[in-house]
Design a protein that fits this description.
It is a single chain. Helix 4 packs antiparallel against helix 6. Strand 15 and strand 16 form a beta hairpin. The protein folds into three domains: 82 residues, 2-Layer Sandwich (Phosphorylase Kinase, domain 1); 222 residues, Transferase(Phosphotransferase) domain 1 (Transferase(Phosphotransferase), domain 1); 215 residues, no CATH class. The protein contains ten helices and 29 strands. It is 18% helix and 24% strand. By secondary structure, it is of the alpha+beta class. It has a six-stranded antiparallel β-sheet with strand order 1-2-3-4-6-5.
Length: 585
């Protein structure tokens, strides 16, 4: 909370402005006071947004959504002005830190508290969904830890199930690391996407870390679509429930009611001493049954349960009561620490952004091109190892070192921005890649040709890829595994084998890769015999150690394809040694 600045208004509508609460993507939020003395959070849309029909439509939808959702788990709408600029809405002011602020201040939240928080937020989602609304931007930044329990805020991109998205073609709403993969890849928004965001939110609370790591939007997006959530060090049962919520198939995610049942809480979240510390609140004194306050406003009065609200499985209420089958036993709440732990810097995006619809994957590579023996051939670039190349062996699964295991596949680990471009005016298929090789291998040779007619430069059928060492090099360590990545120009929908319809995005991945081959075990054992592969027959995409998609015909994605040769030390440990490409029509 900040003091008002000279340019801030003294009043908005009939409400007095008291202080600045913060700024959002669309405007400024103030602390205000109604004529009757009620504290309000007043959100004013920015002037530059007021002239945008799309932004104004989004703001009007937010007002309509907050008005429709009258819930104990949300900040209820009090007033709004939508007729003329400045446009604003006022909701009840909920004192308390956001969950992201609490995590930054305290660090990881104990498993027992996380389970209670999990159940409370699942109940909040169920209540919101019962009103026919999906939040679509659930994250630690949009959860206030109030003295009476968590509250969901910022319904700026929420919408009803019957509404169409007000986003531009090729974009998806949400925040990196909390937006479900089906929204990223095909803008498919269902209630299951909110469950994904809930799982990611609890993971951030339990670890004190971003759920899908740090880095660029593209890197985080790639890990959401093809990687695994970070639950390292989390209590196993809690980690299992988080993983269930973020599974890639929306139909396999638990419903909010199932989450509540599995958490099997036996006491109120507000009675948890750690939650009290996080919320900065004292224990809540609950009135005895039949208690009626002497004065109660209509807006503050408790409402009868809606018949449309979902029924949740009963959970044990007495300590020591066995949990229901499949439920997670909730340990007793840990004692509140005497003082907050050291602040933890949690690098999670602090505001909602519009994601480019990207399905990203893996490393960097390049090579020099030359014509040799009637084939398109290239030697490796004279390059030095890159400091930003593949992950360490500790994170890569099997290693190909002397005591290691033969890598059975190559799996992408980060976005790749290497692309082959044909040389203008060339009649022999010459071209160049835009990045240097990460690792030098002077004797490495390769060719990329049309499998049916090597003299045809444009590919429309199968592609033959060959590689070897020109001379045996004793300086190279044995074994020496090589995998080839054949990369279409655009991101591919695994269901159709073609670029995403209406969402044609540049390919930031490795595409389809071959099984790693030890050149020193091939042919004469010196690495000088050619290894021959055929695309797409010998290529597939691997995700989380399992086959994800087979190579697609090149005619499915006309344009400039990139071919990357990788020195593989483990399934997720590799470096580029050469790069080439071809044009498909």
């Amino acid at each position: 909370m900040e003091a008002l600045r000279p340019q801030d208004p003294a009043s908005i509508g009939t409400h007095t402005v008291l202080a600045r609460l913060g700024a959002g993507g669309m405007g400024q939020v103030y602390l205000g006071r109604s004529p009757g003395g009620r504290q309000l959070a007043i959100k004013v849309i920015r002037e530059d947004f007021a002239d945008s029909p799309e932004a104004l439509a989004r703001f009007r939808r937010e007002v309509a959504t907050v008005r429709a959702v009258r819930s104990a788990f949300t900040a209820n709408l009090i007033d709004a002005s939508l007729d003329a600029a400045p446009y604003w809405l006022a909701t009840e002011y909920v004192p308390g830190p956001t969950l992201i602020e609490a995590i930054r201040e305290r660090g990881p939240v104990p498993a027992a508290t996380c389970l209670r928080l999990f159940a409370a937020l699942a109940e909040a989602l169920a209540d919101v969904h019962a009103h026919g609304v999906m939040h679509r931007d659930l994250k630690p930044h949009n959860i206030i830890l109030s003295a009476v329990g968590p509250k969901l805020i910022d319904f700026g991109i929420a919408r009803g199930a019957e509404q169409t998205a007000l986003t531009q073609a090729g974009t998806a709403p949400g925040t990196p690391g909390y937006t479900a993969p089906e929204i990223i890849t095909r803008n498919d928004v269902t209630a299951a996407a909110d469950v994904f965001a809930l799982g990611a939110t609890v993971a951030a609370a339990a670890t004190g870390r971003p759920p899908y790591g740090e880095g660029s939007l593209e890197s985080v997006t790639y890990r959401v679509v093809h990687g695994e959530i970070d639950v390292a060090g989390v209590e196993p049962a809690l980690a299992e429930l988080v993983r269930a919520c973020v599974t890639g198939d929306p139909a396999k995610r638990p419903t909010p009611a199932e989450i509540i049942s599995r958490c099997a809480v036996t006491s109120a979240l507000v009675e948890d001493p750690v939650y009290q510390e996080l919320a900065g609140s004292a224990p809540v004194a609950l009135p005895s049954p039949g208690y009626v306050p002497t004065v109660m406003s209509a807006q503050a009065a408790p409402q009868a349960a809606s018949p449309a609200a979902p029924a949740f499985p009963a959970t044990p209420t007495a300590p020591g009561t066995p949990p229901a089958p499949g439920a997670l036993p909730v340990p007793p709440p840990p004692p509140a620490p005497q003082r907050p732990r050291t602040k933890l810097l949690l690098a999670v995006c602090a505001a909602s952004v519009v994601l480019g619809v990207i399905v990203a994957i893996s490393v960097q590579a390049a090579g020099d091109d030359s014509k040799q023996g009637g084939q398109k051939a290239a030697g490796t670039a004279d390059a030095k190892p890159s400091a930003s190349s593949s992950p360490s062996a500790a994170d890569s699964g099997a290693s190909s070192g002397p005591a290691g295991k033969e890598p059975a596949y190559l799996e992408a680990t980060a976005p790749n921005r290497d692309y082959w471009t044909p040389q203008e005016g060339s009649s022999h298929g010459e071209g160049a890649c835009q990045l240097p090789a990460e690792e030098r291998s002077p004797q490495f040779q390769f060719s990329v040709v049309n499998a049916e007619n090597p003299d045809i430069n444009v590919m429309s059928g199968k592609v033959k890829v060959s590689f070897r060492f020109k001379y045996a090099d004793p300086a190279l360590g044995k074994p020496y595994y090589v995998s080839v990545a054949v990369k279409p120009p655009h991101e591919i929908d695994a269901k159709t084998g073609k670029p995403f319809e209406g969402l044609r995005q540049q390919n930031l991945g490795l595409g389809y890769t071959s099984k790693p081959v030890d050149l020193f075990r091939n042919g004469d054992g010196h690495g000088t015999s050619f290894v021959e592969l055929t695309y797409p027959d010998d290529f597939q995409q691997t995700v989380n150690g399992k086959p994800y998609a087979d190579g697609i015909p090149v005619v499915n994605d006309p344009g400039n394809w990139t071919v990357l040769f990788q020195h593989v030390k483990g399934p997720k440990e590799y470096a580029s040694i050469a790069c080439y490409g071809f044009t498909a029509k």
